[in-house]
Amino acid sequence: MHPIMTIEDIHAFLESHFPQVHADGRVLSVTDIRPGGLTMRFEPGERHLRPGDTVSGPSMVMLADVAAYAAILAHIGPVALAVTTSLNINFLRKPKLAPIFCDCRILKLGKRLAVIDAILTQENVDSPVAQAVATYSIPPK
Amino acid sequence: MHPIMTIEDIHAFLESHFPQVHADGRVLSVTDIRPGGLTMRFEPGERHLRPGDTVSGPSMVMLADVAAYAAILAHIGPVALAVTTSLNINFLRKPKLAPIFCDCRILKLGKRLAVIDAILTQENVDSPVAQAVATYSIPPK
Amino acid sequence: MHPIMTIEDIHAFLESHFPQVHADGRVLSVTDIRPGGLTMRFEPGERHLRPGDTVSGPSMVMLADVAAYAAILAHIGPVALAVTTSLNINFLRKPKLAPIFCDCRILKLGKRLAVIDAILTQENVDSPVAQAVATYSIPPK
Amino acid sequence: MHPIMTIEDIHAFLESHFPQVHADGRVLSVTDIRPGGLTMRFEPGERHLRPGDTVSGPSMVMLADVAAYAAILAHIGPVALAVTTSLNINFLRKPKLAPIFCDCRILKLGKRLAVIDAILTQENVDSPVAQAVATYSIPPK
Fold it and tell me: How far is C13 from chain A (nearest CA, A)?
């Protein structure tokens, strides 16, 4: 399972397809693409916060969803558009007001269905702030 | 299981605790509170959209999360602050660019844990756009 | 969405396709089939128990999975064989050593994917013992 | 996070608390305990099968649940009894009629809640047959 898109390719794609995500400035950026995986960095802005200087749950869902989507894209190319069919997330620790990194691992990349595991961490890699699994339907060519 | 807060109570609470949600105008409003349940209406704004004039997945997660949270609040009062511990969502149909209603049912409201089922619909109540289950940890008094 | 198989049809199908389930006697039986839904009754046997005279979690998963599968079958017929792709279950209350009823509602029955909501109850219908959502991949004809 | 029980301790505990699991002979055994993790081996018996010589979904749920439970136990000791509150499983590939290994990683071990990630593999470690996340409520001491 080898990636066929570069970080720059993914950024250009997100820029044109998810303009809303970057409405307040670029908050998401891919930091690594590797066989079967991808890492995305999220810089929380004002509107992603919750009282107590923490990051909102739906913002972490957004991060996991876009990162998992990018991981699939990186491995199948920008032609076929995957659709999120389900997402399960466990909120493990209250994130600090700081960047969150999302490490994605492709568990399955079938013809019709892809399943991605995502671990969200801040400073301490051994104490993730959240874990998510997302499934995507891949349309027939 | 009887509600102890009114729609106005919930609105006032959300206004003061979730100001980010309403940054672009009030997009969420409670339309019904009933024993064991609550309905919330979501009016998607520009930043909740995705290409193809549809509503983004994370926006539906936000709706389900806030609505489920409000359902708990309505039944235990604003004192104890529940924390979302997990959320599972199935995206069933592409929503149109129109309001989404989220019907919550409290499956369990224990001393430590609450579990809420949420069905998101638009016009056709028999064809939901999404279904979610969220769990909340209720802190000791 | 109208059922095209009868209770007897479903029983005959399960008998021939899931013989292991009934290894110790028939523990599962369909009690109702309706448009978009199905109810299955589970009579726990010795091997489904856990200490404290309760029913094991995996037994409830088995019930939800077979019931959801039967609900799909009842509406599309025995030709195409659906495969479970994911299952999310919340254990809400400790079940007693007594029959459990599983009420299934088809949330989506697409060409490729079906999503079923299942509520497991005992005596008190308002206090379910578990809630599950299962997704199935439907093979191309 | 260091384990405080040995493989033999865990086996003795399962033997006395989950006798049903081993009704047809010992099918589960711990093969490794490490800081923050545990591996369990499952030898499928006749009653865990499905047509086509594959292993049933609920049997994989049983494996993930018992393995995750054992992982918690190994780290907190046999005193407090954890209760499964939710389980999410993705079935990725049809398992062969052969042993399945379940690698558990403790994502969180809090005072009240534990969250465990489980990856089920057979021969090819890079192509898991299933992935699960289970949450447990830990009773107050």
Answer: 27
